[in-house]
Design goal:
Elements: E1 3-7, E2 25-28, E3 32-36, H1 39-46, H2 61-88, H3 99-106, E4 118-119, E5 125-128, E6 142-143, E7 145-148, H4 153-162, E8 167-170
Parallel strand pairs: 4-6, 5-7
Antiparallel strand pairs: 1-3, 2-3, 2-8
Helix pairs in contact: 1-4
């Protein structure tokens, strides 16, 4: 496995692997571009400790736990940004919201929110998918929801992309 992380000025030509072929996976974040042989290497750029796992450990409990912890942290952070943006846009005022709404928005995402059937606000609620169906028996809330899904490296990276935190590109499976 090999990967390249580019921070700062972008080169005039995309990096390639030692054999001259393009990297099958890449990811652009606000601060870097990463070119990699595997999704694992991309996830390792986002999840602390992921690069210390043995190769081919994507499906094991430790890898899942690390993706879950990162998903919770990202969901918590992104929910704060969404709420602040909504407040700045004048569509959310915490001083006039009821306690249930504020609890739903600001509860740590390591705690499952299962009291709502639907979120119909103009700004999204950010939740961690592993607390809901099909991973548990708790039904998923409907409505304006953004999901962080730590189940696999692919679902994790897709979630990061859906939150607008990175763009992920794959030229191979």
């Amino acid at each position: 496995m090999a990967h390249i992380v580019i921070e700062g000025d972008f080169p005039s030509q995309l990096p390639v692997r030692e054999d001259g072929t393009p990297f099958p996976f890449s990811m652009a974040t606000q601060s870097a571009a990463i070119f990699a042989d595997t999704r694992t290497e991309l996830v390792a750029q986002l999840v602390e400790g992921y690069d210390e796992l043995p190769e081919d450990s994507e499906g094991d409990d430790t890898a899942m736990w690390l993706r879950y912890k990162a998903s919770v942290a990202l969901a918590n952070m992104h929910q704060q940004v969404v709420a602040a943006d909504a407040a700045n846009a004048g569509i959310f005022d915490p001083s006039v919201e009821d306690e249930d709404t504020l609890t739903t928005i600001f509860t740590d995402r390591s705690e499952k929110i299962d009291e709502i059937a639907s979120w119909d606000r103009t700004f999204p609620l950010v939740l961690v998918a592993s607390g809901y169906a099909p991973y548990t028996t708790t039904p998923r809330p409907a409505g304006n929801i953004l999901w962080m899904d730590p189940y696999t490296e692919t679902t994790f990276l897709d979630s990061v992309e859906s939150l607008g935190l990175a763009e992920v590109f794959a030229t191979e499976g």
